[in-house]
From TrEMBL:
This is Uncharacterized protein. The keyword Transmembrane applies. The chain crosses the membrane at residues 34-55. Gene3D superfamilies: 3.90.550.50. InterPro entries: DUF604. It comes from the Eukaryota. It holds the Pfam family DUF604. PANTHER family: FRINGE-RELATED (PTHR10811). Keywords: Membrane, Transmembrane, Transmembrane helix. GO terms for molecular function: acetylglucosaminyltransferase activity.
Length: 528
Protein backbone atom coordinates (compact mmCIF):
# COMPACT_ATOMS: atom_id res chain seq x y z
CA UNK A 1 0.00 0.00 0.00
CA UNK A 2 2.98 2.27 0.26
CA UNK A 3 2.65 4.07 -3.03
CA UNK A 4 4.79 7.00 -2.25
CA UNK A 5 1.84 9.11 -1.27
CA UNK A 6 2.77 10.87 1.87
CA UNK A 7 0.27 13.65 1.35
CA UNK A 8 -2.11 15.13 3.90
CA UNK A 9 -1.57 12.78 6.82
CA UNK A 10 1.47 13.19 8.97
CA UNK A 11 2.92 9.99 10.26
CA UNK A 12 2.95 9.89 14.01
CA UNK A 13 4.10 6.34 14.54
CA UNK A 14 7.46 6.31 16.18
CA UNK A 15 7.16 9.89 17.31
CA UNK A 16 7.71 8.74 20.84
CA UNK A 17 10.50 6.57 19.61
CA UNK A 18 12.68 9.62 19.22
CA UNK A 19 12.18 10.90 22.76
CA UNK A 20 14.02 10.08 25.92
CA UNK A 21 12.39 7.56 28.25
CA UNK A 22 11.54 10.27 30.80
CA UNK A 23 9.74 12.43 28.29
CA UNK A 24 8.08 9.33 26.91
CA UNK A 25 6.66 8.48 30.31
CA UNK A 26 5.47 12.02 30.92
CA UNK A 27 3.78 12.26 27.59
CA UNK A 28 2.14 8.92 27.94
CA UNK A 29 0.52 9.99 31.17
CA UNK A 30 -1.47 12.55 29.21
CA UNK A 31 -2.39 10.24 26.42
CA UNK A 32 -5.78 8.61 26.48
CA UNK A 33 -6.12 7.28 22.97
CA UNK A 34 -8.91 4.85 23.76
CA UNK A 35 -10.92 7.53 25.51
CA UNK A 36 -10.48 9.73 22.51
CA UNK A 37 -11.61 6.86 20.40
CA UNK A 38 -14.74 6.49 22.44
CA UNK A 39 -15.64 10.11 21.87
CA UNK A 40 -14.72 9.78 18.23
CA UNK A 41 -16.75 6.63 18.00
CA UNK A 42 -19.89 8.20 19.43
CA UNK A 43 -19.57 11.16 17.09
CA UNK A 44 -18.80 9.10 14.07
CA UNK A 45 -21.50 6.56 14.72
CA UNK A 46 -24.01 9.38 14.69
CA UNK A 47 -22.68 10.32 11.29
CA UNK A 48 -22.37 6.73 10.20
CA UNK A 49 -25.97 6.09 11.19
CA UNK A 50 -27.16 8.99 9.11
CA UNK A 51 -24.95 7.73 6.31
CA UNK A 52 -26.47 4.29 6.56
CA UNK A 53 -29.96 5.67 6.39
CA UNK A 54 -29.07 7.22 3.06
CA UNK A 55 -27.15 4.41 1.44
CA UNK A 56 -28.77 1.01 1.06
CA UNK A 57 -28.36 -1.50 3.79
CA UNK A 58 -26.61 -4.35 1.99
CA UNK A 59 -23.86 -6.34 3.70
CA UNK A 60 -21.30 -4.98 1.30
CA UNK A 61 -22.12 -1.41 2.13
CA UNK A 62 -22.35 -2.05 5.83
CA UNK A 63 -18.86 -3.45 5.80
CA UNK A 64 -17.46 -0.57 3.82
CA UNK A 65 -19.34 1.92 5.96
CA UNK A 66 -17.76 0.52 9.09
CA UNK A 67 -14.37 0.64 7.46
CA UNK A 68 -14.80 4.26 6.61
CA UNK A 69 -15.90 4.86 10.12
CA UNK A 70 -12.78 3.39 11.63
CA UNK A 71 -10.56 5.17 9.14
CA UNK A 72 -12.36 8.33 9.98
CA UNK A 73 -12.13 7.71 13.72
CA UNK A 74 -8.42 7.48 13.36
CA UNK A 75 -8.21 10.79 11.64
CA UNK A 76 -10.44 12.36 14.24
CA UNK A 77 -8.31 11.04 17.00
CA UNK A 78 -5.26 12.46 15.32
CA UNK A 79 -6.68 15.77 14.25
CA UNK A 80 -9.21 16.46 16.97
CA UNK A 81 -11.65 17.41 14.30
CA UNK A 82 -13.93 15.70 11.89
CA UNK A 83 -12.63 14.80 8.53
CA UNK A 84 -14.53 16.42 5.69
CA UNK A 85 -15.43 12.94 4.50
CA UNK A 86 -18.33 12.95 6.89
CA UNK A 87 -19.62 16.31 5.84
CA UNK A 88 -23.27 15.93 5.05
CA UNK A 89 -23.02 16.29 1.26
CA UNK A 90 -20.68 13.39 0.89
CA UNK A 91 -22.63 10.25 1.58
CA UNK A 92 -23.09 8.69 -1.81
CA UNK A 93 -21.10 5.50 -2.37
CA UNK A 94 -19.78 6.76 -5.69
CA UNK A 95 -18.28 9.78 -3.99
CA UNK A 96 -16.78 7.65 -1.28
CA UNK A 97 -14.83 5.64 -3.77
CA UNK A 98 -13.09 8.77 -4.92
CA UNK A 99 -11.84 9.73 -1.50
CA UNK A 100 -8.61 7.86 -1.42
CA UNK A 101 -7.02 4.85 -2.90
CA UNK A 102 -6.91 2.72 0.24
CA UNK A 103 -10.65 2.74 0.55
CA UNK A 104 -11.08 1.69 -3.07
CA UNK A 105 -9.06 -1.42 -2.33
CA UNK A 106 -11.26 -2.27 0.64
CA UNK A 107 -14.34 -1.93 -1.50
CA UNK A 108 -12.91 -4.32 -4.03
CA UNK A 109 -11.92 -6.92 -1.50
CA UNK A 110 -15.38 -7.01 0.02
CA UNK A 111 -17.39 -6.56 -3.12
CA UNK A 112 -18.62 -10.14 -2.98
CA UNK A 113 -20.38 -11.14 0.12
CA UNK A 114 -22.81 -14.01 0.17
CA UNK A 115 -24.01 -13.66 3.74
CA UNK A 116 -22.90 -17.12 4.70
CA UNK A 117 -23.93 -18.04 8.20
CA UNK A 118 -22.74 -20.68 10.62
CA UNK A 119 -26.16 -22.27 10.15
CA UNK A 120 -25.34 -22.99 6.52
CA UNK A 121 -22.21 -24.99 7.30
CA UNK A 122 -22.02 -28.68 8.19
CA UNK A 123 -18.82 -29.93 9.76
CA UNK A 124 -17.44 -33.40 9.18
CA UNK A 125 -14.84 -34.46 11.72
CA UNK A 126 -12.60 -37.35 10.77
CA UNK A 127 -12.04 -39.31 13.97
CA UNK A 128 -11.08 -42.73 15.18
CA UNK A 129 -12.82 -44.55 18.01
CA UNK A 130 -9.54 -45.49 19.64
CA UNK A 131 -8.29 -41.92 20.01
CA UNK A 132 -11.58 -40.17 20.58
CA UNK A 133 -11.47 -40.16 24.37
CA UNK A 134 -8.36 -37.97 24.38
CA UNK A 135 -8.97 -35.99 21.21
CA UNK A 136 -12.50 -34.97 22.03
CA UNK A 137 -11.02 -32.25 24.22
CA UNK A 138 -9.66 -30.47 21.14
CA UNK A 139 -13.02 -30.57 19.40
CA UNK A 140 -14.77 -29.33 22.50
CA UNK A 141 -12.61 -26.20 22.45
CA UNK A 142 -14.20 -24.89 19.29
CA UNK A 143 -17.50 -26.72 19.08
CA UNK A 144 -20.68 -24.89 20.09
CA UNK A 145 -23.49 -27.32 20.08
CA UNK A 146 -26.29 -24.79 19.98
CA UNK A 147 -25.10 -22.96 16.90
CA UNK A 148 -23.20 -25.56 14.87
CA UNK A 149 -24.16 -28.60 12.84
CA UNK A 150 -21.89 -31.54 12.17
CA UNK A 151 -20.79 -35.04 13.05
CA UNK A 152 -17.81 -36.93 14.33
CA UNK A 153 -17.27 -39.90 12.02
CA UNK A 154 -16.09 -43.10 13.71
CA UNK A 155 -15.43 -46.64 12.57
CA UNK A 156 -17.15 -48.26 15.57
CA UNK A 157 -19.27 -46.99 18.46
CA UNK A 158 -17.22 -46.06 21.49
CA UNK A 159 -17.69 -47.56 24.92
CA UNK A 160 -19.51 -45.44 27.46
CA UNK A 161 -21.67 -42.36 27.10
CA UNK A 162 -21.14 -39.80 24.36
CA UNK A 163 -19.78 -36.42 25.41
CA UNK A 164 -22.63 -33.92 25.33
CA UNK A 165 -20.29 -31.02 24.52
CA UNK A 166 -19.02 -32.73 21.38
CA UNK A 167 -20.81 -32.99 18.05
CA UNK A 168 -22.96 -36.12 17.69
CA UNK A 169 -21.26 -39.10 16.10
CA UNK A 170 -22.00 -41.20 13.04
CA UNK A 171 -20.58 -44.57 12.14
CA UNK A 172 -19.03 -44.62 8.68
CA UNK A 173 -20.38 -47.06 6.13
CA UNK A 174 -18.49 -50.26 5.41
CA UNK A 175 -15.84 -49.64 2.74
CA UNK A 176 -14.56 -53.19 2.34
CA UNK A 177 -15.77 -53.28 -1.28
CA UNK A 178 -13.26 -50.58 -2.33
CA UNK A 179 -9.77 -51.38 -3.53
CA UNK A 180 -6.80 -50.19 -1.48
CA UNK A 181 -3.35 -51.15 -2.67
CA UNK A 182 -0.95 -48.73 -1.01
CA UNK A 183 1.77 -50.63 0.81
CA UNK A 184 2.10 -49.44 4.42
CA UNK A 185 -1.05 -47.38 3.98
CA UNK A 186 -4.22 -47.63 6.00
CA UNK A 187 -7.58 -48.63 4.60
CA UNK A 188 -9.21 -46.17 7.01
CA UNK A 189 -8.40 -43.59 4.32
CA UNK A 190 -11.34 -44.92 2.28
CA UNK A 191 -13.77 -44.40 5.10
CA UNK A 192 -12.48 -40.89 5.79
CA UNK A 193 -12.60 -39.96 2.11
CA UNK A 194 -16.30 -40.65 2.07
CA UNK A 195 -17.16 -38.32 4.97
CA UNK A 196 -18.06 -35.48 2.57
CA UNK A 197 -20.41 -37.65 0.54
CA UNK A 198 -21.88 -39.49 3.50
CA UNK A 199 -22.58 -36.13 5.11
CA UNK A 200 -24.12 -34.90 1.88
CA UNK A 201 -26.36 -37.96 1.71
CA UNK A 202 -27.81 -37.17 5.12
CA UNK A 203 -29.90 -34.65 3.17
CA UNK A 204 -29.64 -31.81 5.70
CA UNK A 205 -31.48 -28.63 4.78
CA UNK A 206 -29.99 -25.21 4.01
CA UNK A 207 -26.42 -26.34 3.60
CA UNK A 208 -24.05 -24.15 1.61
CA UNK A 209 -20.75 -25.60 2.77
CA UNK A 210 -19.27 -28.86 4.02
CA UNK A 211 -16.18 -28.25 6.13
CA UNK A 212 -13.85 -31.12 6.96
CA UNK A 213 -11.29 -31.36 9.71
CA UNK A 214 -9.63 -33.93 11.95
CA UNK A 215 -10.24 -34.72 15.58
CA UNK A 216 -6.93 -33.03 16.46
CA UNK A 217 -7.78 -29.82 14.62
CA UNK A 218 -9.25 -26.66 16.04
CA UNK A 219 -11.33 -24.49 13.76
CA UNK A 220 -11.78 -20.75 14.12
CA UNK A 221 -15.39 -20.64 13.07
CA UNK A 222 -16.03 -16.85 13.10
CA UNK A 223 -13.19 -16.37 10.68
CA UNK A 224 -14.32 -19.36 8.65
CA UNK A 225 -17.78 -17.89 8.18
CA UNK A 226 -16.33 -14.57 7.05
CA UNK A 227 -13.93 -16.27 4.67
CA UNK A 228 -16.66 -18.40 3.11
CA UNK A 229 -18.85 -15.33 2.67
CA UNK A 230 -16.48 -14.26 -0.08
CA UNK A 231 -17.44 -17.22 -2.26
CA UNK A 232 -20.66 -17.95 -4.07
CA UNK A 233 -21.97 -21.19 -2.53
CA UNK A 234 -23.91 -21.87 -5.73
CA UNK A 235 -20.64 -22.46 -7.56
CA UNK A 236 -18.26 -25.38 -7.10
CA UNK A 237 -15.51 -24.49 -4.63
CA UNK A 238 -12.75 -26.52 -3.04
CA UNK A 239 -10.92 -24.34 -0.52
CA UNK A 240 -7.96 -25.40 1.58
CA UNK A 241 -4.21 -25.21 1.82
CA UNK A 242 -1.02 -27.15 1.22
CA UNK A 243 1.35 -28.60 3.80
CA UNK A 244 4.14 -26.82 5.70
CA UNK A 245 6.40 -29.62 4.49
CA UNK A 246 7.86 -29.18 1.03
CA UNK A 247 8.57 -32.91 0.92
CA UNK A 248 4.96 -33.76 1.71
CA UNK A 249 3.79 -31.34 -0.96
CA UNK A 250 6.03 -32.85 -3.60
CA UNK A 251 5.14 -36.38 -2.50
CA UNK A 252 1.41 -35.70 -2.57
CA UNK A 253 0.59 -32.43 -4.26
CA UNK A 254 0.86 -28.70 -3.91
CA UNK A 255 -2.64 -28.54 -5.35
CA UNK A 256 -4.51 -30.57 -2.79
CA UNK A 257 -6.20 -29.41 0.38
CA UNK A 258 -4.52 -31.20 3.28
CA UNK A 259 -7.26 -32.81 5.31
CA UNK A 260 -6.11 -32.13 8.84
CA UNK A 261 -5.73 -28.44 8.13
CA UNK A 262 -9.33 -28.56 7.06
CA UNK A 263 -11.03 -27.69 3.81
CA UNK A 264 -14.37 -26.43 2.60
CA UNK A 265 -16.47 -27.85 -0.21
CA UNK A 266 -19.47 -25.98 -1.54
CA UNK A 267 -22.83 -27.69 -1.86
CA UNK A 268 -22.79 -28.14 -5.66
CA UNK A 269 -19.35 -29.72 -5.50
CA UNK A 270 -20.40 -32.06 -2.70
CA UNK A 271 -23.46 -33.03 -4.74
CA UNK A 272 -21.32 -33.83 -7.78
CA UNK A 273 -18.85 -35.73 -5.65
CA UNK A 274 -21.64 -37.77 -4.09
CA UNK A 275 -22.50 -39.23 -7.47
CA UNK A 276 -18.95 -39.78 -8.74
CA UNK A 277 -16.86 -40.58 -5.72
CA UNK A 278 -17.40 -44.30 -5.31
CA UNK A 279 -16.44 -44.98 -8.92
CA UNK A 280 -13.52 -42.62 -8.56
CA UNK A 281 -12.19 -44.39 -5.45
CA UNK A 282 -11.62 -47.60 -7.37
CA UNK A 283 -9.65 -45.75 -10.05
CA UNK A 284 -6.95 -44.70 -7.55
CA UNK A 285 -6.40 -47.59 -5.13
CA UNK A 286 -2.69 -46.74 -4.93
CA UNK A 287 -3.19 -43.39 -3.24
CA UNK A 288 -2.27 -43.05 0.42
CA UNK A 289 -4.74 -41.01 2.41
CA UNK A 290 -8.21 -39.59 2.32
CA UNK A 291 -7.31 -36.03 1.35
CA UNK A 292 -5.39 -37.14 -1.76
CA UNK A 293 -8.41 -39.24 -2.75
CA UNK A 294 -10.74 -36.27 -2.29
CA UNK A 295 -8.31 -34.22 -4.35
CA UNK A 296 -8.15 -36.89 -7.08
CA UNK A 297 -11.92 -37.09 -7.35
CA UNK A 298 -12.47 -33.32 -7.28
CA UNK A 299 -9.83 -32.93 -9.98
CA UNK A 300 -11.85 -35.36 -12.12
CA UNK A 301 -14.67 -32.84 -11.86
CA UNK A 302 -12.35 -30.12 -13.14
CA UNK A 303 -12.35 -28.05 -9.95
CA UNK A 304 -8.94 -26.77 -8.78
CA UNK A 305 -8.12 -25.83 -5.22
CA UNK A 306 -8.65 -22.29 -4.01
CA UNK A 307 -5.81 -21.82 -1.57
CA UNK A 308 -6.32 -20.07 1.71
CA UNK A 309 -3.35 -19.61 4.00
CA UNK A 310 -5.55 -19.50 7.07
CA UNK A 311 -5.82 -23.31 7.08
CA UNK A 312 -2.91 -24.88 8.92
CA UNK A 313 -2.10 -28.50 8.33
CA UNK A 314 0.90 -27.99 10.65
CA UNK A 315 3.12 -30.69 9.25
CA UNK A 316 5.89 -29.54 11.56
CA UNK A 317 7.42 -30.88 14.75
CA UNK A 318 8.56 -29.19 17.90
CA UNK A 319 7.77 -25.68 19.02
CA UNK A 320 5.14 -24.08 16.75
CA UNK A 321 5.76 -20.58 18.12
CA UNK A 322 7.74 -19.37 15.11
CA UNK A 323 4.99 -20.13 12.63
CA UNK A 324 2.33 -18.46 14.72
CA UNK A 325 4.53 -15.46 15.49
CA UNK A 326 4.65 -14.53 11.81
CA UNK A 327 1.26 -15.55 10.50
CA UNK A 328 0.36 -14.54 6.94
CA UNK A 329 -1.96 -11.58 6.78
CA UNK A 330 -5.18 -13.51 6.56
CA UNK A 331 -7.59 -14.66 9.27
CA UNK A 332 -6.52 -17.88 10.97
CA UNK A 333 -8.93 -20.72 10.17
CA UNK A 334 -7.46 -23.83 11.73
CA UNK A 335 -4.57 -25.43 13.59
CA UNK A 336 -3.93 -29.13 13.15
CA UNK A 337 -1.65 -31.74 14.70
CA UNK A 338 -2.26 -30.51 18.22
CA UNK A 339 -1.16 -33.94 19.41
CA UNK A 340 2.13 -33.79 17.52
CA UNK A 341 3.37 -30.22 17.71
CA UNK A 342 4.69 -28.93 21.01
CA UNK A 343 2.45 -27.00 23.36
CA UNK A 344 1.37 -23.60 22.04
CA UNK A 345 2.65 -21.93 25.21
CA UNK A 346 5.79 -22.80 27.14
CA UNK A 347 5.42 -24.62 30.45
CA UNK A 348 1.77 -25.40 29.87
CA UNK A 349 0.26 -28.70 28.87
CA UNK A 350 -1.11 -28.81 25.34
CA UNK A 351 -4.68 -28.63 26.51
CA UNK A 352 -4.17 -25.87 29.07
CA UNK A 353 -2.31 -23.88 26.42
CA UNK A 354 -5.05 -24.43 23.88
CA UNK A 355 -7.70 -23.28 26.33
CA UNK A 356 -5.77 -20.09 27.03
CA UNK A 357 -5.51 -19.42 23.32
CA UNK A 358 -9.17 -20.08 22.65
CA UNK A 359 -10.21 -17.79 25.51
CA UNK A 360 -8.33 -15.01 23.76
CA UNK A 361 -9.92 -15.98 20.44
CA UNK A 362 -13.36 -15.67 21.97
CA UNK A 363 -12.66 -12.01 22.77
CA UNK A 364 -11.74 -11.29 19.15
CA UNK A 365 -11.11 -13.96 16.56
CA UNK A 366 -10.40 -11.70 13.58
CA UNK A 367 -7.17 -10.36 15.02
CA UNK A 368 -5.72 -13.64 16.32
CA UNK A 369 -2.09 -14.07 15.21
CA UNK A 370 -2.23 -10.94 13.09
CA UNK A 371 1.18 -9.36 13.09
CA UNK A 372 1.91 -5.76 13.95
CA UNK A 373 5.44 -4.47 13.71
CA UNK A 374 6.57 -1.37 15.54
CA UNK A 375 9.67 0.29 16.94
CA UNK A 376 10.65 2.34 19.96
CA UNK A 377 13.37 4.82 20.80
CA UNK A 378 14.70 5.62 17.41
CA UNK A 379 14.54 1.98 16.45
CA UNK A 380 16.66 0.83 19.34
CA UNK A 381 13.96 -1.76 20.02
CA UNK A 382 11.94 -3.72 17.49
CA UNK A 383 8.59 -5.26 18.33
CA UNK A 384 6.61 -7.92 16.52
CA UNK A 385 3.19 -8.58 17.98
CA UNK A 386 1.30 -11.72 17.02
CA UNK A 387 -2.04 -10.66 18.39
CA UNK A 388 -3.45 -12.86 21.14
CA UNK A 389 -0.32 -14.99 21.21
CA UNK A 390 3.20 -13.61 21.54
CA UNK A 391 5.23 -10.39 21.40
CA UNK A 392 8.84 -10.64 20.27
CA UNK A 393 11.11 -7.80 21.34
CA UNK A 394 14.50 -7.40 19.70
CA UNK A 395 17.25 -5.06 20.74
CA UNK A 396 18.27 -2.93 17.83
CA UNK A 397 16.66 -2.54 14.48
CA UNK A 398 15.28 -5.65 12.85
CA UNK A 399 13.72 -4.78 9.52
CA UNK A 400 10.01 -5.36 8.97
CA UNK A 401 10.73 -7.84 6.17
CA UNK A 402 12.87 -9.89 8.55
CA UNK A 403 10.22 -9.83 11.25
CA UNK A 404 7.73 -11.16 8.73
CA UNK A 405 9.76 -14.34 8.30
CA UNK A 406 8.98 -17.21 10.65
CA UNK A 407 11.67 -17.65 13.31
CA UNK A 408 12.60 -21.31 13.04
CA UNK A 409 11.61 -22.68 16.42
CA UNK A 410 10.31 -25.90 14.81
CA UNK A 411 11.56 -28.77 12.69
CA UNK A 412 10.23 -30.10 9.44
CA UNK A 413 7.85 -33.05 9.37
CA UNK A 414 10.94 -35.18 8.77
CA UNK A 415 12.82 -33.65 11.67
CA UNK A 416 15.06 -31.40 9.60
CA UNK A 417 16.17 -27.82 10.25
CA UNK A 418 17.06 -27.34 6.63
CA UNK A 419 15.22 -24.39 5.12
CA UNK A 420 14.65 -26.32 1.90
CA UNK A 421 12.02 -28.29 3.78
CA UNK A 422 9.76 -25.30 4.21
CA UNK A 423 7.68 -23.79 1.41
CA UNK A 424 7.73 -20.40 3.17
CA UNK A 425 10.31 -17.97 4.56
CA UNK A 426 12.06 -19.04 7.73
CA UNK A 427 14.83 -17.36 9.63
CA UNK A 428 17.22 -18.87 12.15
CA UNK A 429 17.13 -17.42 15.63
CA UNK A 430 20.53 -15.78 16.15
CA UNK A 431 23.04 -17.57 18.38
CA UNK A 432 24.14 -14.32 19.98
CA UNK A 433 22.03 -14.00 23.13
CA UNK A 434 21.90 -10.24 22.66
CA UNK A 435 20.26 -10.66 19.27
CA UNK A 436 17.68 -13.17 20.42
CA UNK A 437 14.20 -11.85 20.95
CA UNK A 438 12.77 -11.51 24.42
CA UNK A 439 9.41 -13.24 24.34
CA UNK A 440 6.21 -12.16 26.02
CA UNK A 441 3.39 -14.69 25.85
CA UNK A 442 -0.33 -14.14 26.13
CA UNK A 443 -1.56 -13.92 29.68
CA UNK A 444 -5.04 -12.47 29.26
CA UNK A 445 -7.24 -10.63 26.83
CA UNK A 446 -10.46 -8.78 27.49
CA UNK A 447 -12.66 -5.98 26.32
CA UNK A 448 -11.99 -3.08 28.65
CA UNK A 449 -15.43 -1.53 28.81
CA UNK A 450 -14.90 0.51 31.91
CA UNK A 451 -12.53 3.05 30.57
CA UNK A 452 -12.29 2.81 26.88
CA UNK A 453 -13.88 -0.01 24.91
CA UNK A 454 -10.43 -1.11 23.84
CA UNK A 455 -9.38 -4.70 23.64
CA UNK A 456 -6.53 -5.22 26.04
CA UNK A 457 -4.14 -8.07 25.64
CA UNK A 458 -1.52 -8.62 28.31
CA UNK A 459 1.64 -10.55 27.53
CA UNK A 460 4.04 -11.67 30.25
CA UNK A 461 7.75 -12.22 29.92
CA UNK A 462 8.81 -15.75 29.28
CA UNK A 463 11.89 -16.43 31.35
CA UNK A 464 14.10 -18.72 29.35
CA UNK A 465 17.70 -18.80 30.41
CA UNK A 466 18.96 -18.71 26.85
CA UNK A 467 16.77 -15.97 25.47
CA UNK A 468 15.91 -13.70 28.36
CA UNK A 469 17.66 -11.94 31.20
CA UNK A 470 20.71 -12.12 29.03
CA UNK A 471 22.48 -9.20 30.64
CA UNK A 472 22.72 -7.48 27.26
CA UNK A 473 20.26 -4.75 27.99
CA UNK A 474 19.05 -3.73 31.43
CA UNK A 475 16.13 -1.80 30.10
CA UNK A 476 14.40 -4.64 28.31
CA UNK A 477 15.43 -7.10 31.01
CA UNK A 478 13.43 -5.21 33.60
CA UNK A 479 10.25 -5.32 31.52
CA UNK A 480 7.84 -7.92 32.85
CA UNK A 481 4.75 -7.30 30.80
CA UNK A 482 3.52 -5.76 27.61
CA UNK A 483 0.00 -4.47 27.43
CA UNK A 484 -1.42 -4.00 23.96
CA UNK A 485 -4.56 -2.02 23.49
CA UNK A 486 -6.38 -2.08 20.20
CA UNK A 487 -9.62 -0.81 18.74
CA UNK A 488 -12.06 -3.68 18.25
CA UNK A 489 -11.94 -4.87 14.66
CA UNK A 490 -14.47 -6.08 12.27
CA UNK A 491 -13.12 -8.05 9.34
CA UNK A 492 -13.06 -5.04 7.10
CA UNK A 493 -9.45 -4.28 7.92
CA UNK A 494 -8.25 -7.31 5.96
CA UNK A 495 -7.06 -5.10 3.24
CA UNK A 496 -3.53 -5.76 2.10
CA UNK A 497 -2.01 -3.73 4.89
CA UNK A 498 -1.12 -4.52 8.46
CA UNK A 499 -2.28 -2.55 11.45
CA UNK A 500 0.14 0.00 12.85
CA UNK A 501 1.43 0.11 16.40
CA UNK A 502 2.85 2.77 18.65
CA UNK A 503 4.67 2.44 21.94
CA UNK A 504 2.61 4.64 24.23
CA UNK A 505 4.40 4.15 27.48
CA UNK A 506 7.48 2.40 28.77
CA UNK A 507 7.73 2.38 32.54
CA UNK A 508 10.22 0.13 34.31
CA UNK A 509 8.40 -3.14 34.06
CA UNK A 510 5.55 -2.38 31.66
CA UNK A 511 5.33 -1.40 28.04
CA UNK A 512 2.02 -0.15 26.63
CA UNK A 513 1.48 -0.42 22.91
CA UNK A 514 -1.48 0.90 20.99
CA UNK A 515 -2.54 -0.82 17.79
CA UNK A 516 -4.89 0.71 15.19
CA UNK A 517 -5.28 1.11 11.44
CA UNK A 518 -2.33 2.79 9.74
CA UNK A 519 -2.66 6.21 8.34
CA UNK A 520 -2.11 6.81 4.71
CA UNK A 521 1.59 7.07 4.08
CA UNK A 522 2.46 5.98 7.62
CA UNK A 523 5.67 4.01 7.95
CA UNK A 524 5.91 0.96 10.19
CA UNK A 525 9.45 1.98 11.08
CA UNK A 526 8.30 5.37 12.32
CA UNK A 527 9.25 8.83 11.12
CA UNK A 528 11.67 8.97 8.21
C1 LIG B 1 -14.59 -51.16 24.31
O1 LIG B 1 -14.37 -52.06 25.36
C2 LIG B 1 -13.93 -53.35 24.94
C3 LIG B 1 -13.87 -54.25 26.15
O2 LIG B 1 -13.22 -53.60 27.22
C4 LIG B 1 -12.57 -53.22 24.24
O3 LIG B 1 -12.13 -54.48 23.78
C5 LIG B 1 -12.72 -52.27 23.05
O4 LIG B 1 -11.47 -52.07 22.44
C6 LIG B 1 -13.31 -50.96 23.49
N1 LIG B 1 -13.58 -50.15 22.33
C7 LIG B 1 -13.16 -48.91 22.19
C8 LIG B 1 -13.52 -48.24 20.91
O5 LIG B 1 -12.54 -48.32 23.04
C1 LIG C 1 -18.05 -55.10 5.77
O1 LIG C 1 -18.51 -55.86 4.71
C2 LIG C 1 -17.80 -57.11 4.55
C3 LIG C 1 -18.27 -57.80 3.29
O2 LIG C 1 -19.41 -57.21 2.76
C4 LIG C 1 -18.00 -57.97 5.78
O3 LIG C 1 -17.26 -59.16 5.65
C5 LIG C 1 -17.48 -57.20 7.00
O4 LIG C 1 -17.73 -57.92 8.18
C6 LIG C 1 -18.16 -55.84 7.08
N1 LIG C 1 -17.53 -55.10 8.16
C7 LIG C 1 -18.21 -54.53 9.13
C8 LIG C 1 -17.42 -53.80 10.15
O5 LIG C 1 -19.43 -54.59 9.19
C1 LIG D 1 -9.09 -0.49 31.62
O1 LIG D 1 -8.51 0.69 31.14
C2 LIG D 1 -8.29 1.65 32.15
C3 LIG D 1 -7.82 2.94 31.50
O2 LIG D 1 -6.75 2.70 30.65
C4 LIG D 1 -7.28 1.12 33.16
O3 LIG D 1 -7.08 2.05 34.19
C5 LIG D 1 -7.81 -0.18 33.74
O4 LIG D 1 -6.83 -0.75 34.56
C6 LIG D 1 -8.18 -1.15 32.64
N1 LIG D 1 -8.85 -2.31 33.21
C7 LIG D 1 -8.22 -3.41 33.51
C8 LIG D 1 -9.05 -4.50 34.09
O5 LIG D 1 -7.03 -3.56 33.31
C1 LIG E 1 11.12 2.22 38.49
O1 LIG E 1 12.47 1.99 38.76
C2 LIG E 1 13.02 2.85 39.72
C3 LIG E 1 14.51 2.60 39.79
O2 LIG E 1 14.79 1.24 39.72
C4 LIG E 1 12.33 2.64 41.05
O3 LIG E 1 12.83 3.50 42.01
C5 LIG E 1 10.83 2.87 40.85
O4 LIG E 1 10.12 2.58 42.02
C6 LIG E 1 10.28 2.04 39.74
N1 LIG E 1 8.91 2.40 39.45
C7 LIG E 1 7.94 1.51 39.31
C8 LIG E 1 6.60 2.06 39.02
O5 LIG E 1 8.12 0.31 39.42
Amino acid sequence: MARGEHGGQTSTSGLLGGLSPQIEEKLSGNRKPCLMFTVACVLSSIFALSALSIITNSCEERISASTFRSASMERMAQNYRMHSFYSSEDHSPSKKRKIDSEEIVIDDVFKKSYNTNLKNIVFGIAASSKLWQSRKYYVREWWQKRTMRGYVWLETPINGTWDEFAPPFKISANTSQFKYSRPKGNRAALRLTRIVTETFKLGLKNVDWFVMGDDDTIIFTDNLVRMLSNYDPKQMHYIGSHSESHVQNTRFSYSMAYGGGGFAISYPLARALATTQDGCLNRYPELFGSDDRVHACITELGVPITKNQGFHQFDIRGNPMGLLAAHPMTPVLSIHHLDIIGSLFPRKSRLVALRLLMRAARVEQASMFQQTITYAQQRRYSFSISSGYVVRVYQGFVAPWELEEAPRTFYSWYGSKNHDHFPFDVREIPDDPCEKPTLFFLSKRFLNNTASGCIETVYLKHRLSESNSNGCDERINSVERIRVRSTPLDHSWFMPRRLCGRVEMWKNDTIDIFVRPCQQGELVVGVH
